[in-house]
Amino acid sequence: MENNPPIRPARFWYVVGVALFLAGMVGAPVLLVTSVLEMVSGGEQFIVPGQLGITIEKPGSYTLWYDVRTVYKGRSYNSSESLPDGVTIEIVYLETREKVEFESDFGTTQHSGHSFSVAIGTFKAEQPGRYSINVSNLDEKRVFHVQRSFFELLVSRILVAVIIGPIGFFGGPAIVIITAIRRKNARSRQESGQAQA
């Protein structure tokens, strides 16, 4: 008696379908939640007046924040919400020594537990690489931080979630159903061939 050939497609495609469904149903919400967490906790702090050298890997818009209430390297800062007149902010793309335009936009706030920050403005990093942010004309030490702009980050993550969500929701079950139908047809053909033999 000859061994029957394996039925195709393999059961492996059931696993693929279930995994795709879970990726869409779980992955999309997780992506959005992690985006919000990145907004709240992300960024690189530095003391001003002073300079920060930062490596930007993803071109895009970045926001410079003034951390009114924060803890930096074990020290608590609780400063005035307004900055004195005459504060100078200079951003340079170190690869070419070109100055990067900084657009002031004082007013947007960010709260996270005890911490409170006010957005100072944004700049656009057109190319990946090293940038320097120099803040001067301040009489007392304050804490700033820089991070990718909320809106741009959130929009990009929403677009990805909108894509993977439906693909997982519809594509996963579709793969399972198609696999089941094709396996059933293959099994029927196999049994029919055995009966004729």
Q: Tally the helices.
A: 2
Described by the principal axes of the CA atoms, the overall outline is elongated
Give the C-alpha Rg.
27 Å
At CATH level 2, the architecture of the domain at 45-148 is: Sandwich
Poorly predicted runs are none
- % residues in beta strands: 35-45%
Sheet with the most strands?
7 strands, antiparallel
Helix fraction bin: 25-40%
Instruction: Measure the end-to-end span.
Output: 11 Å
CATH level 1 name of the domain at 45-148: Mainly Beta
Number of strands: 11
CATH topology of the domain at 45-148: Jelly Rolls
Structural class assignment: alpha+beta
Q: What is the H/E order?
A: HEEEEEEEEEEEH
Average pLDDT number: 87
Question: What does this entry look like structurally?
Answer:
This protein is α+β, with helices and mostly antiparallel strands and 197 residues long. The chain has a domain of 104 residues: Jelly Rolls, CATH 2.60.120. It has 2 helices and 11 strands. The longest helix has 47 residues.
